[in-house]
Specification:
26 strands, single chain, alpha+beta, 4-stranded antiparallel beta sheet, 8-stranded mixed beta sheet, binds zinc ion, about 25% helix, globular, Cathepsin B, Chain A
């Protein structure tokens, strides 16, 4: 072999080795770092850091094509303690989704995992087609056992009353998500306030003139008042911000990219609700991406879930403020207190549970008089109880900027 041939072979070998090393480096990088793109920062543009010691470690779901819409709602359901418990209670075989979800959740506690099984059960054949997260959220809830689905199911009463006081229609219908219209014909650039939108949803309206309704009792057309009331308040209330609307000018569906103000506490006539999950939609109608931000019921920190990528939010949302978002699509709230003073509803409290966004500590002290333990100022959010007793917290009462927790023995 001549020297020059030998040198050439050595040169080619080195070149090949470099190529292989480069490829290995690329593979390692692609495994370690998530793909950074438009959707890799959360909607407030906050940077995200990894979990630190003591935080819970949550796992992601692989994207099977364009299945981020499903992944985001599956993570919301996984992170809903009462939902997981309701699945565990069921042993009836006819609720196939229960078993698929239980299996998925069991794996998800330990590892990131695939969703092929659930996709098949939900009848999703084309995994590359972008679908609506809300649609599949509702589909899952309609397929799980009644105890699990009831958690999310509310009821609305729609009634119409003529100007002479005759009730011309009165119907009750269930809902999984409460759709709030975001279209503002006057100004689409202003911020949409979820609290106002929620109140507007229940505002009565009057029809008159050529829109008058026929009343059987009056035997003629008459002005009428249309009302909508929440008849059954679900334990978990999901608001759907209608970002996808049909535009009659272009005769196509368009996405409304309005900024929204999301309250951490939603006050309704009978209950207060605490925000614990947001499903975000980024991008356009067809080329969008879904992610979820969820507050853990275990360590009370907010995490971001983007398919297989899960991290604790570096800047935790402040529950005393509202969230500003350009991407919020589904807002998931859990019931936090009953407003009616004379209610018999009892909310059992265990250490680590949350009441109105505050983690409850149960301090055990034999010196404390259990009668005094009934009232605690907000901010401490702790209740002192004798060591061996079981107590229930049954009410939180707001009085002149002070919040009292009332407890009673079980
Ligand atoms: Zn009438």
């Amino acid at each position: 072999m001549t020297d020059s041939l030998f040198n050439t072979i050595i040169f080619l070998l080195i070149l090949k080795t470099c190529e292989i090393l480069n490829r290995i480096r690329q593979i390692i990088r692609s495994v370690k770092t998530p793909k950074i793109g438009l959707h890799e920062l959360d909607n407030e543009g906050l940077s995200i850091m990894g979990s630190t010691g003591g935080d819970k470690v949550y796992h992601g779901l692989y994207n099977e094509g364009a299945t981020c819409y499903l992944n985001s709602v599956l993570q919301v359901l996984f992170m809903t303690k009462v939902f997981r418990e309701a699945l565990e209670c069921n042993s009836e075989e006819k609720y196939i989704v229960d078993f698929k979800l239980k299996r998925l959740f069991t794996t998800l506690m330990e590892n990131e995992t695939y969703t092929k099984d659930i996709l098949l059960t939900l009848g999703i054949e084309n995994v590359h087609e972008q679908c609506d997260a809300a649609e599949y959220f509702e589909k899952i809830l309609s397929m799980v056992n009644p105890k699990a689905s009831k958690l999310f199911k509310g009821e609305l009463r729609h009634s119409t009353t003529c100007s002479n006081g005759h009730i011309t229609s009165n119907e009750i219908g269930p809902f999984w998500t409460l759709p709030l219209s975001m279209a503002d014909p006057l100004d689409s650039s202003n911020t949409y306030c979820v609290n106002d939108g929620f109140c507007d949803f229940f505002k009565s309206s009057t029809v008159s003139g050529e829109n008058q309704m026929y009343c059987d009792d009056c035997e003629m057309k008459a002005d009428a008042t249309i009302e909508c009331r929440m008849e059954v308040y679900p334990d978990i209330l999901t608001l759907l911000l209608k970002r996808f609307e049909f535009d009659y000018y272009t005769m196509t569906y368009v996405k409304i990219n309005r900024s929204v103000e999301v309250p951490h506490t939603l006050q309704t006539e009978e209950h207060d609700y605490e925000l614990y999950a947001i499903v975000d939609h980024f991008g356009t109608l067809r080329g969008g991406h879904y992610t979820a931000k969820i507050k853990s019921f275990e360590d009370h920190n907010w995490y971001v879930f983007r398919d297989s990528y899960v991290k604790k939010l570096c800047f935790q949302p402040n529950s005393k403020r509202t969230e500003r978002s350009n991407s919020a699509y589904l807002l998931v709230y859990k019931k936090s207190l009953v407003k009616n003073e004379h209610t018999t509803n009892q909310i059992p409290v265990n250490p680590g549970d949350e009441v109105a966004g505050e983690p409850v500590e149960i301090k055990t002290s034999e010196d404390d008089d259990p009668d005094d333990a009934g009232l605690e100022e907000h901010g401490h959010a702790s209740v002192s109880v004798p060591e061996d007793s079981q107590w229930d917290l049954w009410e939180r009462v707001d009085v002149e900027a002070h919040i009292y927790l009332c407890i009673t023995p079980t």
